[in-house]
Amino acid sequence: MTLIQTLQLEAPPQLVWDLLVEHGGALQLVPGLTAGPDGRGTLRVALAGHAVTYRGYARQHVEEPNHRVTWTLSGREVRGTGRGHAEIRARVKELAGGGTDLRLTVLTEGKGRLAEVTEDDREQAVASLIVRFGKNLKSELPTPDAGPAERPRRVPGHQTAPQLEIVPPSAASRGTGARAAALAAAGLLAGALAVLVWRARSRR
User: Fold this and answer.
1) Residue 195 domain boundaries
2) pTM to 2 decimals?
3) CB crowding 91-106: b at 16 or more within 10 Å, else e
4) N or C terminus: fewer CB in 10 A for the chain?
5) Are residues 41 and 105 in the same domain?
């Protein structure tokens, strides 16, 4: 499924661009997307009246000269066996009368819940996300009456266009944790037995 929508913004293009791409700013404005500093997180969406949560990854690819950026989100259903994949292409362009034209092209595909609902349901879900994303974006941009626009502040130690990974713990890491816990328990048990033997000998 492909859906194209355009957002008209009053802020200048460079300010909009900086907010979208710096430190994965656009991903932080996506409603339902939760990601911590380590990049782990989930995406919760509403499909045909039902909430579906995905766990996977998100990446950002920037084309600086053309003011184009692509975000890729892909993951598995937390409660289910389905998968979801979305590619969002954004183009930032200056309007003739001032302001910014932000065109979003969204491509989605998947199995499980995404395949079970109709295309109209998928379009409605994506359109709802874009509307809420647009509101979040506008709330972060200065209004024309707010004075001279300032560039978003850079956070020291971060790159301009980071790659945000949202990866669930692997089966191998879970197995390593279980083995470590078992070894620790065995060590405690051995220590307790040694103390009991020492006390028994001391009483003789």
Assistant:
1) 169-204
2) 0.68
3) ebeeeeeebbbbebeb
4) C
5) yes
Does residue 179 share a domain with residue 154? Answer: no
CA atoms within 13 A on the CB side of 125: 25
At 84, which helix (H) or strand (E)? strand 83-94
Q: Distance between alpha carbon 41 and the CA centroid of its chain, in Å? A: 6
Say how far apart CA 178 and CA 68 lie, in whole Å.
45
Q: Per the structure, how many domains does the chain have?
A: 2
| Rounded distance between C-alpha atoms, residue 166 and residue 59, angstroms | 9
Residue 198 structure tokens? 């020492």
Of 177, 11, 198, 9, the C-alpha closest to 104 is 9
Predicted confidence band of residue 12 (pLDDT cuts 50, 70, 90): very high
User: Dihedrals φ, ψ of 108, to 5°?
Assistant: -130, 150
Does residue 41 share a domain with residue 14?
Answer: yes
- Helix axis angle, 119-140 to 13-21, nearest 10°: 110
Same domain for 157 and 194: no
pLDDT tens profile 110-119: 999 999 999 9
Mean pLDDT score of the chain: 77
Of 57, 61, 65, 60, the closest CA to residue 85 belongs to 57
Q: Which amino acid type is present at position 163?
A: Q
Tell me which H or E stretch contains 128: helix 119-140
Instruction: State the DSSP H helix or E strand holding residue 50, giving kind and residue range, or none if neither.
Output: strand 50-63
SS3 129: helix
Two tokens at 75? 């993951």
Residue in the block written with tokens 């791409």: 21
